[in-house]
Prior knowledge:
By secondary structure, the chain is mainly β. It has strands spanning about 10, 30-35, 45, 55, 65-70, 75. Helix content is about 0%, strand content about 15%. Strands 1-2 form a two-stranded parallel ribbon. It has a two-stranded antiparallel ribbon with strand order 3-4.
Amino acid sequence: xxxxxxxxxxxxxxxxxxxxxxxxxxxxxxxxxxxxxxxxxxxxxxxxxxxxxxxxxxxxxxxxxxxxxxxxxxxxxxxxxxxxxxxxxxxxxxxxxxxxxxxxxxxxxxxxx
Length: 113
């Protein structure tokens, strides 16, 4: 399986700032460059709401603890640091703070039928 890693983000030619917040950059070197990027992006200087070390934009750099990434199952395990680490202004379907990633961790939410 190929793993996408060591991604470089460059805001080439942009004059306005790009908003990069509430993300997880696991196993990636700090390769952010360009005039459109916010200052100190990727510099660990604080902790997020879960107590995970983060930059000032609440980006974290930790193992996401997916269920089975080798089989492309990117759901979060119950102890994933991505749970409730997303934008607090957005809510998951179960009513909790948004998670980082494509799939929210379900705390028992059952959709209406």
